[in-house]
Amino acid sequence: MSKQWRRGRVSRTRASKAACAGALALGLAGGLLCPPAEAAPATAAERATITPSPRVAKLISEMTLDEKLSFVSAQVDPKGLGEAGYIPGVPRLGIPELRLTDGPAGVRVNHHATALPAPVTLASTWDPRLARDYGQVIGRDGRALDQDVQLAPMTNIIRVPQGGRNFETFSEDPLVSSHMVANEITGIQSQGLIATVKHYAENNQEDDRMGVDVNVDAQTMHEIELPAFQAAVQAGVGALMCSYNSVNGKHGCGNDDLLNGILKTQWAFRGWVMSDWGATHATTDLVAGLDQDMFTAGLQPDPYFQGALKQAITDGSIPVAALDDAVARILGQMERFGLLDGAAEHRPARDPKGGAKVAQRVAESGAVLLKNAGGALPLTASDNRIAIIGPSAKTPKVGGGGSSSVTPDAATSPLDAITRRAGARASITYAAGGDTTGVALPLADSPLGSDGTLTLPAGAYKTARSTITVPATGDYIFTVNAPGSYGSVTVDGAKVADTAYGTVSASAHLTAGTHTIDLFATVLQGAPATLRFTWVTPDMVTAARNQAVAVAKKVRTPIVFAYDDLTEGTDRTGLSLPFSQDELISAVADANPNTIVVLNTGSSITMPWLSKVKAVLDTYYPGENGAEATARLLYGDVNPSGKLTQTFPTSASATPVAGDPKAYPGVDHQETYKEGIFVGYRWYDKTGTTPLFPFGYGLSYTSFAYGDLRVRASHGGLTVSFTLKNTGHRDGQEVAQVYVGAGPNVTEPQAVRKLAGYEKVFLHAGQTRTVSVRVDAQQLRYWDTRTGSWRMATGTRGVWVGGSSRDLPLHAATAVSAR
Ligand code: BGC
Fold this sequence. Notes:
Layout: H1 3-7, E1 10-14, H2 17-25, E2 46-50, H3 54-61, H4 65-69, E3 85-87, E4 98-101, H5 119-124, H6 128-144, E5 149-150, H7 174-190, E6 194-200, E7 213-215, H8 218-234, E8 239-242, E9 246-247, E10 250-251, H9 256-266, E11 272-275, H10 285-288, H11 304-314, H12 320-336, H13 352-366, E12 368-372, E13 385-389, H14 391-394, H15 414-422, E14 427-431, E15 439-440, E16 453-456, E17 461-470, E18 474-481, E19 486-491, E20 494-500, E21 503-510, E22 513-522, E23 529-536, H16 538-553, E24 557-563, H17 581-591, E25 596-600, E26 615-618, H18 626-634, E27 670-672, H19 681-687, E28 704-714, E29 717-726, E30 732-741, E31 753-763, E32 768-775, E33 781-784, E34 789-792, E35 795-802, E36 810-816
Parallel strand pairs: 4-5, 5-6, 6-8, 7-9, 7-27, 8-11, 13-14, 13-24, 24-25, 25-26
Antiparallel strand pairs: 1-2, 3-4, 9-10, 12-26, 15-23, 16-23, 17-22, 18-21, 18-23, 19-20, 19-22, 28-29, 29-32, 30-31, 30-35, 33-34, 35-36
Helix pairs in contact: 6-7, 6-13, 7-8, 13-18, 15-18, 16-17
Bound molecules: beta-D-glucopyranose.
Beta-D-glucopyranose (BGC) binds at residues 84, 102-103, 151, 198, 276-277, 403, 568.
């Protein structure tokens, strides 16, 4: 980090009134940033600027207007490496190109890379050291693959169980999210890759993500969503991505309060703000604190920073100082990361083996054992006749969809990994139990090959309308496989399945007869791509299920792998497993009571079959070494130690956002976070609702006992000490959690208990240790809406310690004072 950068002063300069007037005249601001003069908030149209280093200031003074503008909007990469964003640099001034790649489960380019477990798996390790290792793998891979900026981590709070990107983020709890985001950023940036925390702010759902206006009160925003973003800034993150959604009436990327106010002034962020792809709404967003307008270059012209901004700067309606500051922020980070000193020329080699090891450790440490009746797991020598069931046992579910999907270096199937681990004496049979690939869509007038494929050159798109004859009324599964491309299937005018870069399957209930099908396919950039469009009929599903049941009857232990396909851009319509997998698990468990379930799912799901099965292991999306990790967990080579970072509800109607469309998914693009600070377990505790599995929960093959709680005040916070004993017969790790209760003198809403600290502790069988968990002063504060600042919640407060938010055997009360 350069000294100049650290010393840089943050100031706010008021832009001319002409800025708003000019933008309105051009039809650009649309009232987003420029409400009628009398209604304008005092902070509108002020841009928080930094003082650039002398080197950066000199470079900017030597640039033409076009050169400056080239930094603030996306261009097409002439090398076509497949990253999400490209900035050309200014070769005549020695400023190199800048490549920006997704994120967040690895590096997504036209090349294989380490496909790490989903961030939610990482969070479930409750191990910030692993977050650092995870970040380091991304940092090295990204640099080696010619990238300079990673579009990760995502740290939006899991507010909605249906959220399509819950797998890409960490937790419903701000403390866990803060630790993960900060450590991952440290890891990424330690390798010289610039991290980008996203999506600021309140991008907590995917349905209507581009249109929804989140109405959230200040206390909720500051206590729940913003802490992890602030932690990212404190960890020195170089860039931040603003969100598609609006917050309290202003677009995420034109939100002066969030960008100039909180981010750049209160938190003194000196990096740059880029828009989510296509999230810019006005040239005046520059004044509101946006530095870079990103979109998929080459796909469509951009009217804002690549369009009207030049004219607005030329006629003075937007001050050139605002543009200079945006460029200074980008160049400041390039300087800080050595990119102005040739770092791009000195790149490390990839380390795929090292990456795979970290991927496996995270998968092993983050998998959550949800049920283990009668010690069904780990598997033993007597489990020598095993049936492995489920499509994701054979085709490994490595990661989620959308911009997070990474092409793995390699990925073994769970079937192969378990077969290898089980050894020659075990007999392993496989049954698909279901099918999501099926056969080519039998269209009347088909542009598809006999296997359902369609190949397009880079930059091309194709639409095709046809009809399909549905043989019998029932649920049909449509699958789009679109590596390096985007594809969708629409049935009778309603989009059923669409994916960017990955594979997605979705069910539609269709009546017998003829239906209209619209296919859309496009290859955005990079190389030509082959897409595949297929379907599975109800008869195929039933046949596969019957075959699995027959196989399950003949073995001692059936292991069913169940999965889902979460992806950005859309939420789940419910919390059940898709593709009749609930029916599959039930049927197998009815046939054989020793059934074990392994989940490759992105977030919480409901489990109507839970009482019928012996064990459930949730690995979320476990990355490229997920199969090896799963085999080792099932056989007890490694003891499960992951804990849930989100509550699993009993049903979709028993969640904090259920029952009121204004709370979720919004009505007429308006949504109110009416649960306030009571997100996740805070709501379950407040309302006394019993979850399926509580926040912080996870079993082990051993057991732990807590004792001797001591709480003392230290450094404004608390030190909470207790003994932890491994009371079982295996070595294991426990995530010991400390919760604090409400302050008696606070009138603002407060959680019954909130997580205030934790420690993941390794103990040999029989070992006892004294554990000390530090509770920082900040964890004892609340957001005081009257003063708009943090305040200590003083008085006598409860302290609880235990292994989950609902299993807290130790309790004490402690006095918290203002200092
Ligand atoms: C996503 C971002 C991603 C960007 C670039 C957007 O649609 O929301 O998370 O980084 O695309 O691929």
